[in-house]
Amino acid sequence: MTDILSKLSEARAIPVVRHADASVAARGASILAENGFPVVEVTFTVPEAANLIASLRDRQPEACFGAGTVMTVAQANAAIDAGAEFIVSPCLAEDVADLCEERAVPYLPGAATPKEVFACWQAGAAVVKVFPAKQAGGPGFVKAVKAVFPDIPLMPTGGIGLDDMQDYLDAGVLCVGLGELFPARDLERGDDGAAMEFVRAAYVRVRGLSKK
What we know:
The chain is an alpha/beta fold and about 210 residues long. The protein contains eleven helices and eight strands.
């Protein structure tokens, strides 16, 4: 558990890969992992997400891949069997939490209120995903939640861009989930070179940010 917390903290930004085309998702996840981002989340809205995670782990064993939008025990088992090192849900799924505890895999459920944050923590969450962070109140909301739950690691996700990521880090979060890092438009038009250039520039920006 400590190991994944260290990986997430060091990564700062966790790219979220979400796309209806599995080939686009695969190329994007590979580009992210190959160009500086050591931790990548692949959501289960991607077709054959478990197979993609297994393939990514085989090709890039040095990177850390997690599974996102996991809502059922079957999905969680498939993701863990594929090599996912952490499981993320948009909200608390208690049976998934129990499964992750049984299989000793960190669980990161989503919460949008202080009550939900605490419920996730009581259910055994390794990290609580504040989601959707922007709509819930942005950095100010996250900072207020962190003030009353200083021992709960938080990962705000949803509506966050590189331009406001520093504000979330200043609020004391462990890391930030960023869908903006996935270069969907470049990949959709087959311009992997532009996608790689974007990801490399984004990585430089992330590493230039400071953490409290």
